[in-house]
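2024-03-11 09:14:02 INFO worker-7 job=invfold-0412 stage=load source=structure_tokens
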């Protein structure tokens, strides 16, 4: 029952992110926890057009990202990043998308190794309700070797919710539930878009 519920949740998130056109060129991958101790999760199959809805969209993997049982299909090439999320935290869902805004932000702020946001109402969607809350998103290099990328990513995976930008690649966001992860992803993309638009407007004025 829980497995099917999680499957449907992930399928619904995939459809919603597809409707936002957040899977260009087959990019992006999504994962949802289906069991604890030992960890098991569903992850999108590699290389597929995530805008399509097919019976082979997800595979079921173990705590090291290996297929469970007799399945065919290939887990996402970036499954190891989701492995780090589910093994290091109690998060229930991990979402990775490539957007133009998150790529441009990651390049603009990549040398600083992070971007910080403050003074924006939408920061409350990230669970930060206090006055003058500041949110920091680390930016890591886009190592081609996935175990190296996963190790760099893992250095920032401590809490049940979080986000990491991979330079000129995309963002990975995780949270306790699929609803929370999608909400936080939308909030980060809002902040990225706002920042870029504001910088463009300021340059046009000056
Ligand atoms: C075509 S995008 C390059 C791979 C990538 O970064 C990605 O997010 C999709 O990889 P997957 O294996 O999950 O389809
Ligand atoms: Zn990617």
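2024-03-11 09:14:09 INFO worker-7 stage=emit residues=206
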């Amino acid at each position: 029952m829980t497995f099917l519920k999680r499957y449907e949740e992930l399928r619904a998130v995939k459809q919603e992110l597809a409707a936002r056109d957040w899977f260009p060129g087959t990019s992006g991958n999504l994962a949802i926890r289906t069991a604890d101790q030992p960890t098991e999760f569903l992850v999108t199959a590699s290389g597929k057009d995530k805008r399509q809805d097919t019976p082979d969209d997800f595979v079921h993997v173990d705590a090291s990202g290996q297929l469970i049982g007799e399945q065919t299909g290939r887990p996402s090439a970036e499954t190891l990043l989701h492995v780090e999320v589910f093994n290091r935290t109690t998060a229930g869902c991990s979402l990775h998308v490539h957007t133009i805004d998150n790529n441009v932000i990651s390049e603009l702020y990549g040398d600083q190794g992070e971007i910080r946001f403050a003074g924006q109402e939408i920061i409350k969607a990230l669970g930060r309700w206090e006055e003058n809350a500041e949110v920091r998103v680390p930016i890591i290099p886009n190592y081609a070797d996935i175990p190296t990328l996963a190790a760099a990513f893992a250095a920032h995976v401590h809490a049940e919710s979080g986000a990491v930008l991979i330079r000129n690649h995309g963002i990975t966001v995780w949270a306790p539930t699929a609803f929370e992860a999608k909400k936080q992803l939308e909030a980060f993309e809002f902040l990225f878009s706002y920042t870029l638009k504001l910088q463009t407007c300021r340059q046009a004025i000056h």
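2024-03-11 09:14:09 INFO worker-7 stage=report msg="Residues 27, 78, 96, 98, 169-170 surround zinc ion (ligand 2) (CB under 6 Å)."
2024-03-11 09:14:10 INFO worker-7 job finished
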